[in-house]
Amino acid sequence: MARACSTCRGNGLDPYTGNSAPCQMCEGTGKQFDPGRFFIYEMGPFILNAPAQVNATFPQYFVGAAQNGSTLNGVTCQITGSPFRWMFSMAKSTFPFTVQLKDAGSGSGRSFCPQQLQIHSRNLFGTSENPMPLPTPYVFDINVQITADFTDLAGGVGVCSVTNGSPNVTWISGSLFNTASSPGPPYPGLPIWNGAQISIAGVNYVISNALGSGVTSQTTLVLAANYAGATSAVAPFSVSNSIRVAFMGVELSS
Ligand SMILES: [Zn+2]
Q1: Which pTM does this prediction carry?
Q2: Which of 31, 88, 96, 253 sees the fewest Cβ atoms within 10 Å?
Q3: Same domain, residue pair 130 and 144
Q4: Residue 222 CA from chain centroid, whole number
């Protein structure tokens, strides 16, 4: 239980008005404000558009999970034994994504945006250097789960054609190579995949980020180094989005 307000002793009435008005210190709640103790939760890292499905190694926070597609639903973040006042949101990811966040503990699951929508990561999260403060902090009860549904906006999985000793990759099927430009650093104005990692037939390569190279069309791209595996017209490829989402705030005395 929160401690009783030191001004009104917990009855919520202002003793300086003869108890005729709500206590101004606690706004009539009778509870002492608890500044809390710093704490941070994180979901992930998990990977969308991964080379293969992988189960999480730490399921409570979905650490290490991988999905061979662009969506992952029901990702969890377990609140521990103290109420948690969420004050800042942050995310780190390879590419932008959309997300639907919920407090799964409050009965039907309180959503932080309209229930059928997912919000673009740039509109919901700050960066780790510039966390986004919540306009009003939100308190999660003990032992509840923060849950989230994620959709990757930029990666992809498919099948490509590659030749041993050549840096050129040709699309065959699945996600087209992403020709959209990056929304910002590190490669503003260049295709968002330039400089990113691509898994081809189970081996990681890097897509060239040289000017005029990299993703040259939706069906052709150039690696930073020659492909060194067996020549194949049915090589699986994936360009993955690794995501971590953090909730910074304070633990409250329960
Ligand atoms: Zn009070």
Answers
A1: 0.89
A2: 253
A3: yes
A4: 29
Alpha carbons 251 and 242: distance in angstroms, whole number:
28
What does the mean pLDDT of the chain come to?
93
Residue 202 Ramachandran class (φ > 0 left, ψ -120 to 50 alpha, else beta): left
What pLDDT is attached to residue 128?
Answer: 81
Task: Please check whether residues 63 and 133 belong to one and the same domain.
Answer: yes
Q: Distance (Å, rounded) from C-alpha 127 to C-alpha 146?
A: 20
* Dist. CA 131–CA 249, nearest whole Å: 11
Considering only CA atoms, which of 106, 101, 74, 75 is closest in space to residue 90? 101
Distance 11 CA to ligand 1 centre (A): 7
Distance 33 CA to ligand 1 centre (A): 9
Contact 236, 201 (CB under 8 A): yes
Query: What residue numbers bound the domain in which 183 lies?
Result: 156-238
Q: How many domains does the chain have?
A: 3
d(CA 208, CA 252): 49
Residues 41 and 89 in one domain: yes
In the reported structure, the alpha carbon of residue 136 is separated from the centroid of ligand 1 by a whole-number distance in angstroms of 21
